[in-house]
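Example record

The entry below shows one chain as it appears in the dataset: sequence first, then structure tokens.
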Amino acid sequence: MNKVLPAAVAFLLFCVVFSANVFAEMPNTAISINRNIIVPAPLKIGDKVGIIAPANRATPERLQHAVEFLVEKGFDVIVSDNIGLETEYGVGDGSEQARADAFNAIARNPDIRAIFCLRGGYGSMHLLQNIDYEALRQNRPIIVGYSDITALHTAIFQKTGLVTFHGPMLASNRGQTESFERLFELLMNPNAEFPLENIDGTDFSVINEGIAEGIIVGGNLTLICSLMGTEYELDVKDKILFIEDLDEAPYRLHRYMWQLKLAGKLDEVAAIVIGDILPDREYDDPEISLKVILDVLKDVKVPILYNVRAGHGKNPLTIPMGAMVRIVGNKMTVSLSGFQQSGHILPDDFFYVTDIVPDVILEIRYFSTYNFLGTRVDDYLAPVAILSRQAAKALKQVNDDVRAKGYVLKVFDAYRPQGAVDHFVRWAADPNDILTKEYFYPDLDKDRLLPERYIMARSAHSRGSTVDLTLVEMRTGKEVDMGSPFDFFGLISHHGTGLITEKQSNNRLILKNAMEKAGFELYDEEWWHYTLVDEPYPDTYFSFPVQ
């Protein structure tokens, strides 16, 4: 039909190779995402990170190893003042406040991008009344731990919306290389969507096989039950409940599960995920521990996954607590796409697009590796779309218009920091980096991208009122065929090209008419690119990051 077909096929292959968050068919209706949920920015080499011990102290030798481990990873390490405080029962002397003060000193430091727990134990719940939740909401650090740290995961998520990470701890999981490798891959190179899988390659088991979707919450079963009746009680309504535990006698596990049952929690969940349930030393058969839990769940009708290697076992997988999880059969997929960094204060007159157009679909390509650079672009710290107030309101008018015709908008990019544009220019100037040529510019020599203005040193996107977008058919959940993919450099992407079919041309016209009606003007060489005619900052190029 036209010369782009082979490249389009290769383009889809590129999606698989480069990123787990690449092209996927959308469901028939757009998923409603809680835009108050905050996804921390990715961790980078050279970042400051903190080590805390809110549950119990570790030996000096284990602490030293933890510091050396993070330094070898390339981080600037700060050790919490509370690291030597004993937290076991009976310590007294106001240690709860002292430990909370030490935690808050780490939480209030805006330069600390991640907080790693040394170990579990007992005592994290002592801190909950004195934690500076507003500092966590504003600074948005990564927080990693499990076991007794469940108290922190639960309270922090419910008070701030901050996604935290149920993953390996520096002392407890020392030497478990695979678990830490997976953890740091997730923290430093997160995809907007990725599968949750056991590190040892074993499959999850399933009861009540089906499809479920919800925010995943929970953690250690003992701590979940210990917080019942408090202001930090776990909210499980329409959520996926994750549980794990260690060294609990079968009758205690049974009692905890009955507590959840009698409290009505098991009637509210969208699904249940059972992690490591490691037996008490007097009961060395792990099957008994699992059996007593499943006994209480025998009348529960939602999907139940077990044999999920998360928790106290060796090489646990990391679960982003507060993230959206979709269960299909015995598979789990995590989605971070669409969540807002609500704690971040945008410049005056700028808004997150989803705050103005709630049902818009986001596929922020430059936050992923699925783009013409083949890597995440500088200053894209979260998969969110930002626009000036005027542009966002005009975009809502567009969305209302196309919804009446059976479509919804999908946004690939909106405001683009100047630092990202500089990244584009550096890439374009490197003649050796042609990794993505076959997929994005097969008919162009790379040295023509700058002269022919496919890439420019200044971008209208940086003024805050330009958006790259397409249409999704509401009935099928599929992108409308526009004749060429987003960011495909070539004549076929130009308005008025004769290289596409009449149907594809008409599809572009639906988007064009709606955009122009709302006050946007097209960019002739890119069918997806529109700028608000009366943009509020026509001469200002902003540099604040997308976060």
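Notes for this example: The chain is about 30% helix and 20% strand. The longest strand covers residues 211-220.
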